[in-house]
Write a structure and sequence with these properties.
The chain has 305 residues and is mainly α. It contains 9 helices and 3 strands; from the N terminus they run H-E-E-E-H-H-H-H-H-H-H-H.
């Protein structure tokens, strides 16, 4: 009995001091295994809640920031963040999955345009960005991603999902030469049909875009359909500098809070807005909504024109 009492007293003293003696008190419970050690492989279509850690197909780890039905961690950045393990797992060697610096990763670009023409390369787009440094570089991260989604949504509509490089209705080709301009149409009457991601057309637009970019597009309009970077630059030229039938550029519409609807107006508002062609407007809005969701940002107000 005395031995039991002494043992009990000693156990209490040691326990209070945070010490363990074999045979007297149990060893402390091992710390929970690092969350990455037992992290399951990510699976598309599996429901995840905030705090869930998964191992992606490349061996890197991601943690769910918002509940989602199995969105891809390297594409849906609002729902997932790269996760550095506290012990047993391999941390992400590159927490920024997009070395290009563009707010849309190549994986997201490919998901936006799964059936795109190989002419429209991601590299061509990122190479063109230097010509317009304010594009997707203005405002908050949300605004930057909204602008990217808006530009690419309109591009998708104009080209059938980045499928068409040139205007499909060849009967229109001869219409785009305004010979009242002092420079005329040196490349020929039928040379200035729609090309590129926003279907640049008319001799005066080729002249203006070429002058801005330092490229002779008036004399050599075919460069827009043979050089991916030039094609993307003409689309970005229109988006960043031209009001079209609207009152502001697409860039201004998105960074100043006017809304996606005003970007539609600047591109084709005279034919589509104010009830002119609601199906075409809806196509653009549907693209934008999908792309904004993919980038993890809200669409904002004023979607229609």
């Amino acid at each position: 009995m005395l031995k039991k009492r002494l043992t009990s007293a000693l156990t209490g003293i040691l326990a209070a001091a945070g010490l363990a003696v074999a045979g007297l008190i149990p060893a402390a419970t091992p710390a929970a295994a690092d969350e990455c050690t037992n992290a399951p492989a990510w699976r598309a279509g599996t429901a995840y809640v905030p705090g869930n850690v998964v191992r992606y197909t490349d061996g890197r780890y991601y943690i769910a920031e918002h509940a989602n039905p199995g969105y891809d961690p390297v594409i849906s950045h609002w729902f997932w963040n790269p996760h550095t393990c506290s012990g047993g797992g391999t941390p992400n060697p590159n927490p920024n999955p997009n070395p290009s610096g563009f707010v849309v990763t190549e994986a997201q670009f490919n998901q936006m345009f799964p059936g795109r023409n190989s002419f429209y390369t991601y590299k061509g787009l990122t190479d063109a960005l230097s010509a317009f440094p304010a594009f997707t570089k203005t405002g908050s991260d949300t605004v930057r991603k909204q602008e990217a989604a808006a530009f690419l949504a309109n591009v998708s509509h104009e080209t059938g999902g980045l499928v068409h490089i040139v205007e499909q209705n060849t009967a229109n080709y001869s219409h785009y030469c305004d010979r009242t301009r002092p420079y005329g149409c040196p490349a020929g009457q039928s040379a200035y049909y729609g090309r590129g991601p926003i279907q640049l057309s008319w001799n005066f637009n080729y002249k203006a875009a070429g002058d801005h970019l330092g490229i002779d597009l008036l004399g050599n309009p075919s460069r827009v359909q043979t050089d991916p970077a030039v094609a993307w630059k003409t689309g970005l030229w229109y988006w960043n500098t031209q009001n079209g039938p609207g009152t502001m550029t697409g860039h201004a519409a998105m960074v100043n809070g006017a809304g996606f609807g005003q970007s539609i107006r600047s591109i084709n508002g005279s034919l589509e807005c104010n009830g002119g062609n609601p199906a075409q407007v809806q196509s653009r809005v549907t693209n934008y909504t999908r792309f904004a969701q993919l980038l993890g940002v809200p669409t904002g107000a004023n979607l229609y024109c």
